[in-house]
């Protein structure tokens, strides 16, 4: 059980803002419906079998498609994808179709949208979902990967974009 004395969420977010994260676009599809969300909470779990995890906020009902589809693609963004990251983060008032029109997407094995010029894209089948407070942790078995040419990565730190 978690300690009932809680840290102030704003204070915690201020500390986490100093933690650099690779900006990524996680996407899924179910029938003709597609969804994409900009995240930094993703990482490798294992290389055998190849497994990654992503974290998605529970408060957005539109994220239910990730649980119902059983698939997702994790797309590592390049520095030139900053506007795309903003669009899928909700910073703009673009429709879902307008957001997807900002990039070129294809599919690999699962049918999840893969950004063709992502630094790397991991096409995954959902193998487990764990609820953790305000977020769901989604574990995915990587069934295919895609690489583009190496370009500077897009990072997020101190509430702003940076490149590496």
UniProtKB/TrEMBL annotation:
User: Sorted alphabetically, which keywords does the UniProt record give?
Assistant: Oxidoreductase
* InterPro entries in alphabetical order: Flavin_Rdtase-like_dom, NADH-dep_flavin_reductase, Split_barrel_FMN-bd
Q: What superkingdom does the record give?
A: Bacteria
Q: Which SMART domains did the record assign?
A: Flavin_Reduct
Flavin reductase like domain sequence ranges: 16-163
Protein name from the UniProt record: Flavin reductase
Q: Which organism is it from?
A: Rhizobium mayense
């Amino acid at each position: 059980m978690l300690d009932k004395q809680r840290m102030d969420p704003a204070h915690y977010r201020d500390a986490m803002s100093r933690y650099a994260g690779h900006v990524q676009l996680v996407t899924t599809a179910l029938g003709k419906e597609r969804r994409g969300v900009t995240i930094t909470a993703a990482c490798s779990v294992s290389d055998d079998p190849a497994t990654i995890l992503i974290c998605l906020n529970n408060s957005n009902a539109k994220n239910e498609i990730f649980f119902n589809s059983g698939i997702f693609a994790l797309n590592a963004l390049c520095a030139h994808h900053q506007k795309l990251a903003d669009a899928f983060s909700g910073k703009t008032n673009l429709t879902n179709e307008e957001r997807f029109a900002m990039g070129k997407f294809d599919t690999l094995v699962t049918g999840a949208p893969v950004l063709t010029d992502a630094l790397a894209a991991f096409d995954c089948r959902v193998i487990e979902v764990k609820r953790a407070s305000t977020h769901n942790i989604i574990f995915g078995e990587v069934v295919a990967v895609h690489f583009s040419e190496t370009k500077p990565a897009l990072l997020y730190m101190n509430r702003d974009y940076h490149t590496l």
